Structures are given as structure tokens and as C-alpha cells.
## 1
Amino acid sequence: MAEPEISERFLEGYAGILAEVAETGRRLTRDELETRRALGREAAEAGHQLRALVRRHLAETRAAWPVEAARSSSADSVLAAVEQVVDAFAEGFERAQRLTVRREEAARREFIDDLLYGRSDLGRLAERATRFGLRLSRAHAVAVAAGPEAYNESDAVPRSVEAALLARFGGRKILLTTKDGRLVCIAPGSQPDVLRYFAKQAHAATDGHQVAVGRPHRGPGGVVHSYDEALDALDLAQRMELDDPVLYAADLLVYPVLTRDRQAMADLVRSELGPLKEARGGAEPLLRTLSVYFDAGCVAAETARRLSLSVRALTYRLERIHQLTGSDPSDPMHRYTLQTAVIGARLLDWPAKEI
């Protein structure tokens, strides 16, 4: 993009100041310095580069340099005036730039909040998205990474992940940000490699914490839908004690299906597992035993190893579950019902919460 032509307005009065300083040796007045700052602000808002503006001031200095000043002791005064002018001009320019950056950051944060909360008019949201490199008419997917601490965009972890993504996918339409202390990456749904790479980098940068990836969805509302799926996957992993480093919402659809009829699931949990509360120590140890047993493929030796039990102690627990519930975990006829009830118990946070 070509640099806009520098207007003579930004040098207005400069040659006259140099001539007067050469004659009197005075320094710039407060009003003159404020005028230079104001011109610097205008130049920044007009999209000029400070380097080009300083070069233009120096060229004007050479053109307007009083001949008599070059041959007298007033040369020091003229050079001091040049220094004051350029310094004041640059100060105004930099103030305007900082203000612009703050405005851009505020606009970006407002856009991200609206996008991930599903607020604002969807048509207007799609228009604003183009400014940040997103085309919301297409499908997008969202990945979310939790960490050992809350992050904001200026922290080292988000910046290192962003640097890795830009180095590999510099030409892609990607938005990396933070939300509620988590890392968030929004990418086109047709480019799953971006989110896979983000997940790899974020998992490493957050010391092995989990990353969840929502499914691709189309339109302005698609981003918030995918974001919600990723958040739900992280929450589900915690409740179900899933330890996969990367969780894909598409692989976890069975869980929301199981809880779609919450009342029916609660009835199943109470009916099938409620009697475990009568055991010594309550239901939790036996519920944990069932959960690990099913995760281990119903292999007793592997289950005992994971629970740090002897096979004999595990067998006793399974028999006790059979006695209390009337369902035998080792019987394929009973196994499906028990396993579904165990999943329901984790999803409903039973027995910690009454259902």
C-alpha cells in the first residue's frame, strides 16, 4: 500500500520558526510546541509513517536553513529548535498512535465478546468480522484450551502459541484470543489442520492441560455454537474424568444424548445405583470401581492394577455391587444398563448431588 502524500500542512510555520530562532537565539514557546504536537497527532491519524515525516522535516531544515546561521554561533540555536520541533511532533504522533491502538484493542475485544456470547445483530456482526479476517458466511470451528492459570492476550503463553500459528499458517484467516482466562482459536471449518496444530501447541504451552475442539458450524451464530461445544467438552472431561489431551465435540455426542431426558436418566441412576449408598463408605468407592472396570474393558486384572487393588479385593467389590443392586457387572445382560447408569451418575454428579 502506497504511503499517502505528506501535506505541507504538517510543516506549516516550520521555516519561519527556524528563521526567527537563527535571528534571536530563542527557544520555542509553549504554544509553538503544542502546535507541533497537534500536527503530529493529525499526521498519525492521516496514516503517515513517522520515519517519512522526520525525513521530511530534515529536508525542510536543509532547504530553509538560514545562510547566516550556518556561519555564526546561532547554528546551535537552530539545531536545538529542530530538536524541539521533531521531539514535540513525534510526541503528538506517538500519543495518537497509542490512542488508536487502545481503540483497536477495545473494538477487537468488544467484537470477540459479541461473537462468543452470540450478542449483537448477526448481520452487523458479520460485517465487523471482515475487519478481523473472518468471513462468517462460511463454517468455522473453535478450539478452547484451559491452563493452570487464567490468561490474557499479552501473557507469554498466548503470545508463544500465536507466534507458532503465524509461523506455520501466516496466510490463513485465523483469530487467536483469550476469553475467561482460556486460549481460544477460531479457524475456518475447512481447515482442521489449523485447530489440530493449535491444540498441539496449546497443550504443550499450558503444561499438558486439555484442549477441546467444537464442530464446524456455518454463519455468525456458528462460531458461538462451536465455542459452546468446546466449553461443554472441557466440562464433560472434568466430570467424566476423561484424560485425553485433545477432546473433539464430535466424539462426545453420546453424552448429551444420554442426558437429553434428564429425568429419565436420574430415574435410572437412582434405580440402578441407589442401593450402593448402603455400602460401608457410601456409594462413591463402588461407583469408582464400576467406572474403572468399564474403562478397562471389564478386564479384572487391569481394573485391579488401575485401582491399586488385588484381584481378590476387586472380585469382592464386584460381588458386593451385585448383592446391592441385583445387577452383575460381569454379565453382558446387565452390563449395558449398569454402564449407562454409571455414565449418568458422572454427568449428574451423583452421589455428591441429590437427583
## 2
Amino acid sequence: MLRLALPALPVLAAEPIYLLYDFAVVGRLGGLALAGLAVGGLVLAQVTTQLTFLTYGTTARASRYHGAGNRAAAVREGIQATWLGIAAGITVVVLVLAVARPVLSVLTGDADIAAAAESWLRIGIFGAPLILIAMAGNGWLRGVHDTMRPLRFVVAGLGTSAVLCPVLVHGLAGFPALGLPGSAVANVVGQSITAAFFIGALAAERRAAPAQTPIRPDIGVIRAQLILGRDLILRSLAFQACFLSAAAVASRFGAGAVGAHQVVLHLWNFVALTLDSLAIAAQAIIGALLGSGMVIAAKEAAWRIMRWSIVFAVCLAGAFAAGSTMVPGIFTADPGVLGHIGEIWWFFVIMIPVAGVVFALDGVLLGSGDAAFLRTSTLLAALVGFLPLIWLSLVFDWGLHGIWSGLAAFVLLRAGAVVWRTRSARWAIAGAERGAR
């Protein structure tokens, strides 16, 4: 589990860390450029993160074939997911270029910020197909239990972007100063390098296969991937609706409240990122065990992975509990924001061990291809737990306590659902093809 999880963690963390660096470089241009990058980057992130099934769905399917000893079929999943990513990426580029101006105007409500965001987005959006190729590549490589190559590929691409970004934005080393568009160019160049490495890995695997896997699009495989993707997209939309609603309601309680909410939410996202590395290992392990017909071993592994995830989560919770007076001060010195952080800090700490259960068993069920159950349970948890408490917080002026009570209810309901499903063993279906249905 650690062999798979440890390389996966920096892959998950690399993009958020690079975004902070990108903000620091562009921030030297002033507030307008920074706002343009924030809005343009948000649009690109929203349209690509809805397609994470290219990673998680492909891992579920490829890992079963890997467990069954059919490496060629696992590589085929990668090839078809890559075709799907290219097609979806080109569609995204065309649509975003067509509607960029009106959408950005609505999002910003400010002509200058909208213009800055558009100058970034009209270049940055060409990275969408490249991002989706990398998602597909991550998916099939995780499925065959290789998380080291994705780490090298991602670091190579982001490392190149990190070097180019200040050079192109500020005109260093004899290059012209492109300003904000220079950030977008650096992003696309780095994404091109990462995508090229993933395509190269597919080509090498295909050449090494005893019977070469067809490279042309296979409509049957793509259709099966889209069926799995449909469930994961609906699940992702539930998350988006919840967190956008939470941000909207927090903003109604004043600048201090929304600042505190965002600080603690960023820390929650950090915890989620860390625990997700264990979920990735769970996907790959469970899929391979079921693909090889080892159902009893898969059931035992599910609970073992959950126990280790809880131990790790308790350690994280202990660290944040011990840092309750120090950690918030790293992000802000504003007394109003710090006061609001204190209101919700213990919600955050207490939820972390529960998240250890949720993320581990999410990974187990994703690895088994049980995306339909995860879709339904997440939607119900959002509709029954998170969203009602968020909007009741606004109506009854419960403040951040109400919002974070909603998040706690969301996490608890999801934990109950995945524990029940795992205990039922309905997910533990042997065979290489289960993930295709």
C-alpha cells in the first residue's frame, strides 16, 4: 500500500503547489493580473475536474485486467481513455473559446478583470486536452500498480512550467515580457511535456505486448468507460454544489467569516489530498485482487486498508489539534478571521478520523467498479445532510457553526454508507470484466 501511496501523494500535491507558485509570480504584476489568473484558472479547473473519471474509472478497469494477468487489456484501457480524453479536451477547447467572454463577464462583474481573465484563458484552455491525456495516463498506470512513472512525468512537466513562468511573465533571460499570457503559455508547455511522456509510456507498453494492442478507438470500450464516468461526474457535481453553496452562504456572514471558512477549507482539502493517496492504493489493490478472483483477500484488504487510513487520519487530527493556536496564524494575523477560525477548528479536527474511513472505503468501492453506489450515496448525503444545513444556516443566522455542521453531517452520512456497503460485500465481484459494466 505504501509503495503505491507514497509516489501518488506528490502527484496529487504537485498541481496545487505549482498554482501557489504561479500566483506568486503573477502577483508581481499587480492585483488585476492576479484576479485574471484566479478567474481564468478557476474556469479551466472546473471544466477539467469534472472529468476525473478518466483517472479513477480507468484505474478501476485497468487494475482488474492487471490482477487477471492481462496486461495488454489494461494498456488497452489506457489507449481508449486517452482517445476519450483527446475528444473531450477538443470539445472543451471549442466550447470555452466560444463562450469565454460572456461567461467571464458574468463571473467577474468587472470588465477589466474579465478582460485579464480572457487573455489568460484563451491560451490556457489549450491545455485541457493535455490535462485529460495525463488523467488517463495516471489512471491506467495506477491500475498496473505503477505510481512512480506518473510522478516523474508530472514533475518534468511542472518543473518546466516553473522555469518558464517567471521568464515569460517578466521577460527574463532576453525573452519578451508577456505579462499574464506568459503564465498561460508556461502552463501549456509544461502540460505538453507531461502529456507526451504519458503517450510515450502507452506506445512503449503497446510495443512490448506479445500481441500488439490496437491503437484505433474502440467504441465498445469507450462506451463502457463513459457509463462508469457518468456516475463519477454526477458524484463530482454533488461535491461542487455543496462547496459552492457553502462559500456563497459564508460570504453572507462577512469578510472575516468567509476568510476563516476558506482557510479551514484549504486545510480540509490538504487532508483530503493526503488521505486520497491511500484511496488510490486501495483502488489499485482491490481491483487487482478481484480481477485475479481473490474475493476473500479483497474483503480482508478492504478492512486492513481502512484501519491503516484511520491510524494515519488520527495522527493528522492529533497534529492539527496540537497546532490549534499556531497553525491558523500561519495564514492570517487578522483578529476577526482568527476568531471565526476558532469557532470551526474543532469541527475540522474531529472530522479527520471520520474522513479516514470515508476515503479508504471510497477507494475500495471505486477499485471494485461500484461507482453507481458511490454516486447515489454521495447525492443523498448532499441532499439530506450538507445542503439543508447550509441554507438553514443562512435563514436562521447560524453562521459558520451551521455550515460546518453541514459538512460534518455530509462526511458522517458518507462514512455510514460506505461502511454499510463494504460490510454487505455486494461490491466484491470477481473477474476482469466487472468494471466494464
## 3
Amino acid sequence: MPSSVPSHRISVAPMMDWTDRHFRFFLRLISKHSLLYTEMVTTGAILRGKDIHRHLDFSKEEHPIALQLGGDSPAALAECAKIGEEYGYDEINLNVGCPSDRVQSGSFGACLMKEPNLVAEMVSACKGKVKIPVTVKHRIGVNGKESYEDLHHFVSKIKEAGVDHCIVHARIAILEGLSPKENRTVPPLRYEDVYQLKQDFPNLPITINGGIKTHAEMSDHLTKVDGVMIGRATYDNPFLFADVDSLYFGAKETSKTRESVLEGMIPYVESVRKNGGKVHHVLRHILGLYHGEKGAREFRKYLTDRMHLDTATESILESYLSR
């Protein structure tokens, strides 16, 4: 990959219950260069949890990979950032975008957009502890703080604190009355606000996120900002990423097929199973592999009929490929 192409050019959004290490390994068989994010891990889970390794461990194949942290204490976030760096993560990302009630009850996520000075302290504290980039994923605003002027003020504060990169979901978050799912669809997309940010902060890398599903959309956004983050479309249609390395990172074309991806998953599923993991915890993530292709429904049914059985093994994939 050309050294001039940053990994954040195309990235995969952190998604709770979805972007675990199994899905990330699977996606790495499709794209080697896109930047992957973990699910959000709270500071409490790291500092007070009984199984830090379960939250933070990942496969070497997953690089480049960013650890997303959730919290509102600058000191706790800085301590967790240091632990993340020691685990080998390539970036520390602070969650200032999640609108769920559970996250709000912990006083972090999107509600922190109302407290730009605190977020600046969080960034500064993390920057003082690690050498890897510290980034913030945030919304364009929240109800009550939804003007472009509010957004500009927020970004100016975290830029002064040394943030290395902003990932901006181009919707406001409505903190009361909408579910997290509705917050991904109901507030209108305001891409122009993100483009304006890039114009106002030309030296700050800006990635855009929200509602992006096609390569045509990705390419258009990249004429105006530095990176594109894809969320649900990655999970629904993972083979969308089959062309990412060649289109956006200058990598040479490879003969990548869905079947070669399944072949690559066989030893991984075997390893997970032999280490006490459940086969369906892995295979649930690959059901969209044939999205839009003839036989997609049959593929999903073949896996779902078999992967929950107590006797399930990697042979499910072997038998599917040998049909």
C-alpha cells in the first residue's frame, strides 16, 4: 500500500454487538487496508472488569485497528488509552456519538457534545499518555446544540487539545424520544456541515459517516473530506469491501472471491472452536457474504440451519463449498 494513503481513507464504524473480533477477522479476508474499529469498550470494563483480555484481545491480522473507548473521566480514559496502546492498537478513539440511554446514563457518548471543554480535557489527557493517534467520533450536534456554529465551536476546542482526527456522523443525535436505531435514520443527513468543517479546519483530518452505501457515494465524499466511514452497509453487504483496497489504497487487484473468503474462515472457525468458542458466534457475522447474489437466501439458510447445533464445526463451511 502506498505510504501516502492513510488507513482512515476508508474505515468500518464501531458497532455494538457487530464489530467484534470475529467480524473483524472476516472482513480482513476481504479488505487488508481499511481501518477497523472495535465495539465501544467502557473505561469501567477495562479498569474494573474481571476479564480485560476478552475486551481488548485481537488477532494480528486485524491491523490497522482502532480501540473505541467510552467514558467521561479524562484520567480514566487516559489510563485506558495507555492500556490500549500496550495491547498494540493503532489508534485510540473516543465515543462522543452514541445516543443510547445506557450510554447517556453514564454521562458519555453523544451527550458530551454539550460539554466541549470536557471532551477537550479527555483528548488532552489521552494525548499525554500515548504516542498513537487520539481521535474523536462525534455527531454534527445534539438537540439544543445543533447549529453549525455549535459544531464549529466543539471541533475548535478538541483541535486545540490536540485531537488527531475527527470522524463525524452527519446527523444530530436526539437524546430523548428516539431509539439508537431511529437516531441513525430519523434526523436528516447534513453532509454539507461536514464539508464545511473540512474547509474551516483544512489541516485537521475529517472523516464523514452516515448513510453511505455505495462506491459512487464514497468516491464523491472523498473529493471533499479525507476519509469515509461505512457502518451498517459493511455488515449487510461485506463483499462491498472487495474493491476497497484497489480503488482507494492503490493495492494491486487480487482474485478475491466469496469462496476464497469462506476457505479463509475455515481454520479460524476451527481455532475458535478448539479454544472453547461457539461456532455460531463467528458464523453469524458472515451471513451477508452473498448479499445481492443469486443463492444469497440459500446460503443464509444453510448456515443458520446448522450453526446453532451442539455438533456444529467448521465443516459447515467445508460442506457448503463442496456442494
## 4
Amino acid sequence: MSAPRGEFSSRFGFLMAAAGSAVGLGNIWGFPTNAATNGGAAFLFTYLVLAFALAYPALMAELIIGRHAKANAVTALRGLARGPATARLGVAVGYAGMITVSLILSFYAIVSGWMMAFMFSSLADIAGLSALSQWLATGSLARDSVFTAAFMVLTLYVVNAGVRHGIEKWASRLMPALVLILLALIIYVMTLDGAMDGLRVYLVPDFSRVADTGLLLSALGQAFFSLSLGVGTMLIYGSYVSKRENLPALGGMVTLLDIGIAVTAGLLILPSMYVALANGIEIYNDQGGLIAGPGLIVAVLPALFDQMGEAGVLVGLAFFVLMTIASLTSSISMLEVPVSYVVEEHNASRRKAVLVLGLSITVISLLLVLNFNTLFDLVVSLTTEYSQPLLGFFFAVFVGWIWHRNGVLTEIRQGCPDAEQGLFWKIWPFYIRYICPVAILAVYAQMLLG
């Protein structure tokens, strides 16, 4: 018999954990630059529509499966099967999700380690330890290995404490802190020269781009994958939700939180980039687009902080604390996916599962550090561009085509007795059965065809 499962003690705890899972490094550095290069507010409008039209239905699919099964992804999907073939498919999708999320965590830990190193570099500056600060701010095999391992230790510590005393407790502390730091940084950056230029790029619409297929697919990909969909993290969190909770309402709140923080992050990142430009720092890449991804965080913004003098040290510290928090709230949800499987399917203690899986992923991370130029981009591409979209497609297929419609409705009714008369049930089944699979395949095809 498997060990007793945890459960979130409150709606607030679940919302903070689920929003923390969705709000990660990619949201903070990816969404704003994506918007700026795709028509500004025109992209924002398209993104908002697609987030609720497509990403929210897909999120609900995972939450409903998870709460129905009260189990890990493998057990949950296998339990929805109609026969041996769909049972094997469910097991395969569950295992593929665990492998994918573990590999995502392996490279995510490296980038998160960079955030921690920059955070400590700012602290070293404050303490007057310039040599240490320089070492922490400069990429090297030793630094990257140490901080990758350190970040994984933090992740293991939180997940080992369990759902209520680990994931929920720390997410409930870290997410409000993240929002407060984000707002404080926005207020400060808005006072600097160049900030208004970045704000205009972000918020002034270029409606000529709305009909652009590239913008549509880019917004769809951002909306769908920013919610941590496809690899089972939301399924696992859904399995820890009480049967008394109204799932459509909870899913809507998570979607609103994720969108709200992503859009708010744009109010920091884009103005900061144009403040950097006003200070003579290059913010465009060789192709003429805005620098995004890790290059933005480890090159453009640190150079800006250096030019701010003493204030830059404090601003840099606050920014990298923000990034470390965003990293940790996402990483704990990733590790929980394979941990829940090992605990439930193999009757292992949580402590042992966390230790074995965490150390295994850390070893993979260190191998990526050692072979960074060869393996890092390859693993990122395989997991986020190829595996994750396909897994998202199969989750939609399981809810839309394999799980009996009455079974889905029965599960939703447990926390929402009048669900059948509500707008959600009149629209969502059609979306998850037809629209979501087609939309996901469209994104997948776009990625494959470039």
C-alpha cells in the first residue's frame, strides 16, 4: 500500500503553489521580449484571448484528471483507459512526462544557479568583497557546478518536507515576496531615463501585426506553455486539491495569476532594457531582435546595474532575489512529478524518493555543465519544443476522447454541484475535445517546420 498522500490545506496555498509553478524564469524574461518583437499590445491582446480560450481549458484537463485520480500521472492516465491499448498509452505518456520534466529541471537548475550566483555577487559587493563578487558574477565550471548543486539542495529541502509543510508553506511565503519585489523594481525603473521608451514598445499596439500567423502561433505557444502544461505538474497539484473545491474557479484564478504576473513582468523587463540602451548598453542581437533568454539576465541587466553605482547594487540584489524565488517555486513543482510516482507506485518513503531522484537529476545537470556547448541547447530543444507540446496533446486527447464524458462531469460536480448548467460545461468539453488538440498540433507543426 502506498504512503498517505498530502493535500493542500487552503485555497490560497494551492493558488500560490500552482502560480509559482507557472511563473518561472521563462515568464519573466521570455514573455516581455516576445511581446515587444510581436506588435506590443497587439501581442498582449492576442495572448490574453488565447490564454483563456485555449490554455485555460488545457489547464483544467490536468487539474480534473489529477483530482479525480488522487495519484501520480502514470496511475491517473492508466485509470482513465478504456482498454489495454489506451492503458499502455496512458503509462507511456505518464513516463514520458516524468522524463521530460526531469530533464527540464536538469537544465533549469543550471540557469537558476546563475541567478543565485548573481544574488550572492550583489551581497559580496555590499560587503566590499570585490574579488568574491567578480568570481560569482563570472561564468566558470567551478561556479556553475557549485551553484547548480546548491539550487538543487534548496529544491530537495522544500519537496522533502511534503505538500503542506514544504510546497504549500514555501510557495505561500515566496510568491507574495516575488510580487512585492517585482512591483518595487517597476516603480524604481520607471523613474529612469529610457523607461518610457520601453513602455511604449510594450504597450503601444501595432495592429498591422494582428493578422500575422507568426504572432498568432507565438502568442498561442506562450499562452499554453507558460502555465506548465503537458508534463504533469498541474495534474500532480490537482491531485492534492480537496474534493470540496470548485475546480473551474480555481483554474481560472491560476490562469489570471499567471497572466497577471507575466504581463506585470513586462513592465519591468522592457523599460529596463531601454534604460540600458539609454546608458549605451547593446540590447539587440545579431539578427536585430531584442536579446532574450539567459543573455538578457546574465549580460544586459547586470551591465545596467553596474552603471547605476551604489543604487545598482541594491537593485541588482532585489532583481536576482526575484529571479531565484521564481526559479524555486517552479523547480519544486517539477521535482514533485517523479517523486509522487516513486512514493505511490514503489511504496518508497518521500525522503528516499527525493534524495535518489534529486541526486540523479543533479548528476545530469552537472553533466550538462561539463558539456554545456554540446548538450545544453539540445536538451532544452528536445524537452520544451518537441516533447512538451506532444504530451500536452495527449492530455487533451485523454480528457476529450478517452475519459467518459459523464465521469468528467461527475468529478467537476463534487466541488461545483451546478456545473452542468454553468457556462464552463457548455463550452469546455468542446474545446478540450476539438480546439485544444488542433491548436497544440499547430504549435507543434510550427516548431517542426520553423
